[in-house]
Amino acid sequence: MAKYLSIALGLILLLIGVLAIVKWVAAVAQFVLAMIALTLVLVGLVAVAFGISEVRSAAEEQRRRAQAPAPREGPTTETGGESTGTTD
Fold it and tell me: 82 or 29: which carries more pLDDT confidence?
């Protein structure tokens, strides 16, 4: 019984909502346009913040590379064999 009641209530509310949209179509259109404008502003702010973050990290990486000492050239001390953990 509760299932049918929830379906009936849902249909009634759906009908009331559609009638309200039809009656206040200008206000609904204005609200939708305002939401679109606000969404565009928020997406723009996120894009600018992301861009600033990318520029900062690239500049920091470039600064880090400029301050790092140049790699030394010459013989390496690495060994090619595996270590067994025992000493002879």
Answer: 29
